[in-house]
Write a structure and sequence with these properties.
2 copies of one chain form a homodimer.
Chain A: E1 4-6, E2 11-14, H1 22-29, E3 32-37, H2 41-44, H3 47-55, E4 61-65, H4 74-87, E5 91-96, H5 98-110, H6 118-122, E6 133-137, E7 149-154, E8 159-164, E9 172-175, H7 185-203, H8 211-233, H9 238-250, H10 266-277, H11 281-296, H12 302-313, H13 321-338, H14 355-364, H15 376-386
Parallel strand pairs in A: 2-9, 3-4, 3-5, 5-6, 6-9
Antiparallel strand pairs in A: 7-8
Chain lengths: 387, 387
């Protein structure tokens, strides 16, 4: 096990009706609130009204920033930073999924930075201070509600880049599984794939002795495999929504990565796809993951695949190790297909055209430093397998 | 899954050499430090010197309170509170195992209380404020390094009572697995049993849909079963010590109990044994646990035992459910015996004499509210099975 510094400071109010804690939490941080959200869905499903009821208080002034896109854009963050400075915002209230929370993180940091917020995306070390963030989660997927990361897109430059910092971790997150009841089946499936990809990318590592972390990761994967299909079929199944929501937070809050070495592989490959084609992140991850697994399976990695196959998928441990590995990869593919995810790039509108340039960027921007180092040629092959 | 408010604020510096972070952490909280520790073991194994080297700073004044007993006594806490008030202590530095950290928690709260600290043990709601605590852990067992609980003994009244509060959670804990290398085999085994008991008491609950929590609990149990015997045989096996240490913290920091209902059963029964006979807590837990399991096995509880047997001990799931349950209980007993724990009360000097009165107290003080409610007669029978 490697050394680590554990810090998961977010306080979480988890469960039905926990929105009732919002007013008190907001007032802990100040008076002027920037409410950040996406489109009209939180107005249609009533969450907006419940939030506004909590903010209806003589001590609270609400300013709104709406229209945050699914792959959040630098322009929205720029607007938010401007509002923070003009309105002397004390606390940012992010109501939505990962995109809204991610965008809020950049706004929170940008409020204390004099230059263009895009600088902070390019260089996280410039982030010295940030406004406190409270999140109200409406989609189980990115885990942004308990971590310090954000992914921001710049459509002018076709960039989709990650940034992060300890001080960007939300101070408080309200996680009500009922708030995800109206998430449609395809987004529920994509969210499940996103969660599973976070776990898989973390689980495939080379560090000796991170036994507990690996068992935790397997627990999270089993939870997604158990409840993803239920949530897709029965959107108002509370325990399915609750388990997915809590698994999503733990998939990336550090619990399974502290003590290991995480080399992201599939995420950098997918980020190019959604930067170029604006596809749903979780769908891209689901398409690429089993192809990536097939590509990296070797004498060196097969042991990890055996753990994965036996402990996660319940494959008979007495079989040949490559047989176990290949069965596990097949089960991974079948699982994503079974919850309705389109499993080929062509189905989501991606053809050969930009594969070369995307492969080059993906390798340079992270896949080279993954669990198995991926060159441009490796990435290109994985993309082609995924067509 | 039940509603919960998650809050695990302790920052942890985990791994070899992390003591180097101590000076900076102490100075974050102030100048006057009360160093709390047990006997001479930290002087013999060099930990005391490493701590003092960190505290050797012109901005730090050290006051010492030593001699904290394995079942920490109210008298030590009274001495500590007096020191805090006289020396204007800013931060308490607890160097030791759970007893030292537990005692430090009462001191931390007592520093802000005008009456006798024992009042705070009897009534946790009197705890309004507390000094910050930094712990340097030297024994993997109680999990006190990441939770808000403490157990304090009053030998005059034969009382051993739990107390707790969110503000008693250590702010920072330094967990260096090498600091447990000198823990002898019998204490390593008892610590492993203590950790496993925390997990088992949490795992046996009635709440529907706490699937992820149960898988996490099984992960922790598997970790103890894997590494307990290794640490007993190879005291300087880093990964064994590291996995046990991290499992011990997660066993009781809330991660597996948030969202469930925890009814402690074996702990209240054991607390009477160690209050009356001052035996090692973990040994008492190991002796009682398999007998408690046998006593509560029924049509109503057998399903939980099947999960436990199949997922933790790898028992064939196609067997009869009661057969699985009984095999799991037997494996639990055999495991504790295999790591050298004396598995009968007589072996640790306990006979029939006080069983009745202990059974009465154990039932009243908690076992009545356990996973299966235990009357005085139930407890007495479990004690007798354990003789």
């Amino acid at each position: 096990m490697k050394n680590f510094d554990y810090n998961i400071p977010t306080r979480v109010h988890f469960g039905k009706g926990q929105i009732s804690k919002l007013r008190g939490e907001v007032k802990n941080f100040g008076h002027n609130v920037l409410l950040v959200y996406g489109g009209n869905s939180i107005k249609r499903n009533g969450i907006y009204d419940q939030v506004m009821e909590q903010l209806n208080d003589s001590d609270i002034n609400v300013f709104e920033l709406s229209g945050i896109a699914p792959n959040p854009r630098i322009d929205s963050a720029r607007d938010g930073v401007k509002l923070c400075k003009e309105c002397k915002i004390d606390v940012i209230l992010a109501v939505g999924g990962g995109s809204v929370i991610d965008c809020s993180k950049l706004i929170a940091a940008g409020a204390f930075y004099d230059g263009d917020p895009w600088d902070l995306v390019l260089k996280s070390s410039l982030i010295k201070e940030a406004l406190p963030i409270i999140s109200v989660l409406t989609l189980s997927a990115t885990g942004s509600e308990m971590d310090g990361f954000a992914v921001i897109s710049n459509m002018e430059t076709n960039d989709k880049l990650g940034m992060g910092g300890e001080i960007l971790k939300p101070r408080v997150s309200i996680l009500d599984p009922e708030y995800t009841y109206t998430v449609p089946a395809n987004q529920t499936a994509a969210g499940t794939a996103d969660i599973m990809s976070h776990i898989i990318e973390t689980y495939f590592h080379d560090v000796e002795g991170a036994y507990l972390q690996d068992r935790f990761a397997e627990s999270l994967l089993k939870t997604c495999i158990e409840f993803g299909p239920i949530a897709v079929k029965e959107p108002e199944n509370y325990d399915a929504r609750a388990n997915l929501m809590w698994a999503g937070s733990h998939a990336i809050n550090g619990m399974i990565s502290y003590g290991t070495d995480v080399g992201w592989s599939v995420h950098p490959m997918e980020h190019e796809l959604s930067a170029y084609y604006d596809i749903t992140h979780g769908v891209g991850l689901a398409i690429l993951t089993p192809r990536w697994m097939k590509h990296i399976l070797s004498d060196k990695t097969v042991g990890k695949f055996v753990d994965y196959g036996v402990n996660v998928w319940g494959i008979d441990s007495s079989l040949d190790k490559f047989e176990i590995a290949n069965m596990a990869i097949e089960k991974t593919y079948d699982f994503f297909a079974s919850i309705g995810i389109p499993m080929n790039l062509r189905e989501v509108g991606i053809d050969e055209e930009n594969l070369e340039v995307m492969a080059e960027f993906a390798s340079k921007r992270g896949a080279k430093y993954g669990y198995v180092s991926l060159s441009k040629e490796d990435v290109l092959e994985i993309y082609k397998m995924s067509l």
